[in-house]
Fold:
Amino acid sequence: MQLMQKHRFKSGWPTVLIGGAGTGTAYGIMTAIRRVFSQNVRIVGIDVNPPEMVTASLICDTLVQVPYANSPEFGRHLSGIIEDQKIDAFLPLLPGEIQASLALAQSSRGESPLEFLTGSQELARLSIDKLSMAQWLDANNLPTPRTTNPGGSPKGEALFLKPRAGTGSHGARKVTPDELERLLPSLGPDWIVQEICGGQEVTVDAFHDPLNHFFRAVARDRLEVKSGVSTKCRVREDAELEALAHQLATKLNVSGAFCFQVLGSPGGWRIIDVNSRPGAGTAISAACGNDFAAALIARWLQSDYTTLFERLAVPTIVTRQYTEFRMN
Structure:
C-alpha cells in the first residue's frame, strides 16, 4: 500500500505508538499493520511487563516497559517515549492510557504534531467512563440500559454490576438484590449498575471517515466468550446495527475505527459499551475481509483504505485458538 511522503514524519518513517502491548487488542492491531504495511510502518509498544513477557514484542520494532497507566509517573514516562522515539501517532488502549492522551491533547492545545487515533476526544473521554457514556447515550436518544451508581439503583431487581472504567468485562457480574445490598457499603464511585436486558450480545466493528463520506460496520455475534473476549463469532451484515453505528459515529464526530457492544431486548437493541478503538475481537472481522485496524492506520497515512473492506454475501463463522511463542 502506498504511503505518503516520508519527510512528513519525524524520523523519516511513520512511527505509531500502541498502548497496552500485552493485550490481545494490541497484538491484533500490530499484526494488521504488519500484514498490510509490512515493515513500512515503525511500531513502538508500551507495556508494564518486560519484552520477554509480551508476545507483541516479536512484532513491534521497540517495546518499552512503563509504569502502570494509572500511576502518577506514567504521564512523564509517556511524554519521554513520544519524544525519544519520535512518535507521530498514538493509539492508547487502556483507560489510563486514554486518560493520559486526553491530558496530552489538552496541554498541547492542538499545537502538537502528534496524532491521537482515538476517533475523537469526546469518544475517548466517554469511553473510559461508563456512567458518563450511558448518560450521553440517553441524552442523545440512543438506546441504552438504565445505568446508575449502586446507591441510586432500582430496588428489588437483579442488576449487572461493573467497574465504571473497566475493560473486557473484567469484574462485571450479575448480582441479586440481596447481594447488592450486602456489597453496597463497599462500593464507591468507581462502580455502576445496569438493568439486565437478557438478550443476545453482539459486537459492532465500525469505521468512519467523514471527510470522504465513507462508513463501514459489521456485526459480530458473540457465540463463545472467554475472559470477556470473543473466541467464536458469526460475522454478518446488519442494516439496523449499521445504522445505529452510523448514528454513534456522526454524533460523536468519530474519524477512524471504533467498536461497541449491544444486547437484545424486547424493545430492540441496547448499547452497553462503546470503545474508542478496535477491540480484541476485531481481528475476527479482519478474517472476513474487513480489516478495521489496518484501515485506521491507512487513514492516518492518507492511503486508500477502501480495499480493506468487503461486503459479506452470507454470515461467516470465525473461531480463534491460542498459539505458543518461545520468547527467549
